Amino acid sequence: MGMLDNAAQTAGQGAAPQGTPQAPAPQPGVPLSGAQAAAGMEPLPPTEQVGKPPPQEGFEPANSEEQAEYERAANAMVSLVYGDAGGDKASNTIADSILAEDKIGSAVQMGVTLIAEVDKKIDMDDVVIPQIVEDTVTMLADVAEQKNGISFSPEEMESTLMGVWEGVMYMMGGDAEIQPDFDMATEGMSPGDIQNMEKEYQARLGGAMKNQEAQQMSAVQPQPQQQVGGPPSGIPS
Amino acid sequence: MGLFKKIKKGLSSAWKGIKKGFKSVLSKIGKFLSSGWGKALMIVAGVVTMGAALAAGQVAYSAAATAGKGFFGSMVSGGSAVLSSLTGGMIGTAAPAQAGATGLGATETMGQATKAAQGAEQAAAVADVAGAAGNVAETAVGATKAAEGAGQLAATGGQLAETASSTGGLLSKAANVSAGVEGASLPGYSVANGLQGASRTEKLLSTAGNMAKKAGKGAWNLATSEGGGQIIGKVVEGYAQGRAAEEEARRERRDRARLDKQWRNYDWGSVDFDVKLGQGWADRAARVSADMNNRDARMDYPSSMGADLASGYQRQGG
After folding, report:
1. How many CB atoms lie within 10 A of CB A147?
2. In this complex, which of B9, B77, B208 lies closest to A176 when CB atoms are compared?
């Protein structure tokens, strides 16, 4: 069992109802499709828990005020991303900013931009930001697929989520000291736990970077079988 | 307001939010990041990012953002400049130099002489990109002043175009510099990176142009468009500025395509690779690099470099 399992149980104990379940992720050792292999891609190093439904117990439920604040923030983001407020132009701008040859990088940049801009507009409460980060990544992947046919695999969505969250942490942290937040985040964790997190994080980062470079190279040197919006990387066709 | 208010406040309350169970509004979206799993990933990203920063002796998030090499720093070229533009310059802008350095890291398999040339190139890249970062900072200040004068719409307008423009400019600049040797030879990572950055900016600005036209006609009522104003204000401001950067990026792409084609079509069978370097080859390599970093000199590559190389080394048996 990987360290992420422990983290999932720490964070995800008793999740509130979350709607549609996540699509199953590719299993370790699953071969790539021919087009993906030709493009030099390789699957992310998934743990045995990628895509596994999260534990359903132990979340601290949001109170009514927090839920209301979350809905206010989420509605602002939804209206911007899906065009209810900004019109199709704004929505199309967001969708067009996500590029097939740099899915994660472009989505991360747009995700951080959106969160910053919405926060400037409505001043979200801090406590809802993690959920908004997660929702924003979900929405960006959704509009990219619906409008431009750019699919995100589960691993790519996870990489995007981690990238956006890192960017938001940097923005929110500013010049504040890191140590107190680190102490709070690692409370109850052993050094071994943190080392295991580090290993899994680096493995995922390494895999994500290789896939990104392969995507960029295939954009510079188009492959005969290249197709935008094809099967998500890491999932056999 | 917003994130500006949160700066220096730390992440404490946001961390508490990770463990909160919200009833999501996105239940109708098919591709769903399951909440528990997503938040577990966020904990991992947070712990490792902060731990790495502390291990590197960085005590503040701004320093960590500048030097960060996690998902954000690795996936978003010039990421710190992006954050800086979003937070009004409160995040350090030294990281854009990474955009130039990234390409150098991808060229490890190149020959020894080329590596020497890259050493000189790297210094030039850092200097040039640092200059570009300075321009971005100035642009941010100018944009802020303009926004203040333009009223509430511009003040609350999104910095999307500014981000795209400045990031695209940085990427273009970085690609321009790092393409000196690589662009003329191997279609390496930095070239691809530069292309995607330019492509992204191109798309954003193209859309921005349409938006600007429509806004100019008054067809889009921004005053009542919550969210729309977050984007269009700075898009309009940055459009003309971005066009100039895009023209340069297009010209760079054309140049690189031509040089790549020359490289691929070269008759390598006629080349004697057993070259004995004479004295002072490192100096010549630095000079070659300097030439290649100069656009005009690079366009005259065949003649000027031929003369230089002819006096620079001796061929064995050739």
Report:
1. 16
2. B9
Q: Are B99 and B166 in contact (CB under 8 A)?
A: no
What is the model's pLDDT at position A26? 40
Sign, CA dihedral A140-A143-A145-A149, equals negative
Look up residue B145 and give its two tokens. 């002043």
CB neighbours of A186 closer than 8 A, spacing ≥ 6? A194, B47, B51
- CB contacts, 8 Å: A131 with chain B: 17, 20, 22, 24, 35
Judging contacts by C-beta atoms under 8 Å, the chain A residues touching residue B65 are 170, 173
pLDDT per position as a tens digit, B19-67: 788 887 776 565 556 667 777 888 888 888 888 888 888 888 888 887 7
B contacts of A101 (beta carbons < 8 Å): 192, 196, 199
Q: Return all residues near B251 (Cβ < 8 A) that are at least 6 apart.
A: none
Helix (H) or strand (E) holding A60: strand A60-61
pLDDT: which is higher, A187 or B290: A187
Token representation of residue B99: 């955009």
pLDDT digits (tens, 9 = 90+) for A174-193: 778 888 888 888 888 888 88
Tokens read off for A188:
């109850």
A:B CB pairs within 8 Å: 444
Q: What is the mean pLDDT of residues A104-124?
A: 87
DSSP string, chain B: -THHHHTTT-SHHHHHHHTEE---S-TT-SS---HHHHHHHHHHHHHHHHHHHHHTT--BHHHHHHH--SHHHHHSTTHHHHHHHHTTS-S---THHHHHHHHHHTTTTS-HHHHHHHHHHHHHHHHHHHHHHHHHHHHHHHHHHHHHHH-HHHHHS--HHHHHHHHHHHHHHHHHHHTTTTTTS---HHHHHHHHHHHHHHHHHHHHHHHHHHHHHT-S-GGG-TTHHHHHHHHHHHHHHHHHHHHHHHHHHHHHHHHHHHHHTS-GGG----EEP-TTHHHHHHHHHHHHHSHHHHHTHHHHHHHHHHTT-EES--
Q: In the structure, what pLDDT confidence band is assigned to residue B174 with cuts at 50, 70 and 90?
A: very low
For residue B34, give Cα distances in angstroms to A50, B44, B161, B291.
Answer: 11, 16, 32, 53
Give me the amino acid identity at B3. Answer: L
A28/chain B closest Cα distance in angstroms = 18
In terms of Cα–Cα distance, which of B49, B4, B96 is closest to A167?
B49
Pull the structure tokens for residue B101: 């350095």
Pick from A86, A117, A127: CB nearest B14: A127
Complex confidence, ipTM: 0.72
Q: Which residue among A142, A184, A213 sits closest to B29, beta carbon to beta carbon?
A: A142
pTM of the model: 0.52
